[in-house]
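[job 0417] fold request received: DUF3102 domain-containing protein
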Amino acid sequence: MLPTITVDLPFLAREVNDAHTQTHNHAKGMLLEAKRAGEALLKAKGLCPHGTFKDWVQAHCRLSYRQATAYMRVAKLSKDVKAE
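[job 0417] inference complete; emitting structure tokens
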């Protein structure tokens, strides 16, 4: 016979709150990584001859050019995002 496990509301509240905290932490980490990628892409764009950046992204990065532009936008717009 299997043991009976009782789940009560306080346990479930802790579970929800812990999951919510982890979601927040991962989302913040994701944003910081997107910013880091965007900053590197902006530097690379500055080093590429005019008109060659898109081809460089497609040849050297494991992401689409559209995703690259999204990361660069994050980098430009999130100058104040810092790790805590």
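[job 0417] notes: Residues 9-47 form the longest helix (39 residues). The chain has three helices and no strands.
[job 0417] exit 0
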